[in-house]
């Protein structure tokens, strides 16, 4: 696709954050959007903002039947799907030692199983259009951070899934890419920062580009460009590419030595903050994923 004008793009997690902002960017470039997510009021609001000719459907990416119904409805409306972004994701709070097991399991369900269900549901349409799938992974896939074990594991898994799927669908003419944003100024990041002061302190002490914060609109432009160019990798900001090349460095003894004193102090603080909150996710995500 040299451009996305007239193309149909389905986005999971399209109600807010990166998903909603990417929808706005793609709509400005002439694409038709099919937004999928758990918040019908927000989905309807974003879809109305995009203008005439767009579509939304309430669906849970952890429920394959629900997701398939949304994909089928989008296909019935537009006649095809040219690209999809597996964007829906959550992040739990706390360390492994102090975490609620339900938070870990839900994170894997949304961030890994949800990507699988999305890819499987849209693949017949992408095969028909020789389209493109973008899997939203993270910088965290190759730059692990203490206090984010569940999120890191899920995003590493989604990256590996995208790489394997890319080889599986070559013969179909389908391209698959993975996106690796760092911290994006979205509701997800702001909610965690609002709940946990230690989270913000830890992020500030990370080396660049692991501490960089990017605006949602900059991330949306990168995702839209990736769809137009069928990119294999997307880094937001571009400096994240360096961490991919040096992916063994963040988990090395050298970086552990650099972070050791800070982690010894900050991880117990993080654990106490999570205990005080009495929940394993942000308040909004706890309600959505109950």
From TrEMBL:
Which named protein is this? SDR family oxidoreductase
Q: Name one Pfam family in it.
A: adh_short
- Write down the SMART domains for this protein, in alphabetical order: PKS_KR
Entry keyword set: Oxidoreductase
Which PROSITE patterns has this protein been placed in? ADH_SHORT
CC terms in the record's Gene Ontology section: membrane
Q: What family does the database annotate?
A: Belongs to the short-chain dehydrogenases/reductases (SDR) family.
Domain Ketoreductase positions: 7-186
Which chain regions cross the lipid bilayer?
A: none
Check the record and name the InterPro entries matching this protein: KR_dom (IPR057326), NAD(P)-bd_dom_sf (IPR036291), Sc_DH/Rdtase_CS (IPR020904), SDR_fam (IPR002347)
Which PANTHER family does the entry link to? DEHYDROGENASE/REDUCTASE SDR FAMILY MEMBER 7B, DEHYDROGENASE_REDUCTASE SDR FAMILY MEMBER 7B
Q: Does the keyword Oxidoreductase apply?
A: yes
- Locate the coiled-coil region(s) and give their ranges: none
Q: Name one GO molecular function term.
A: oxidoreductase activity
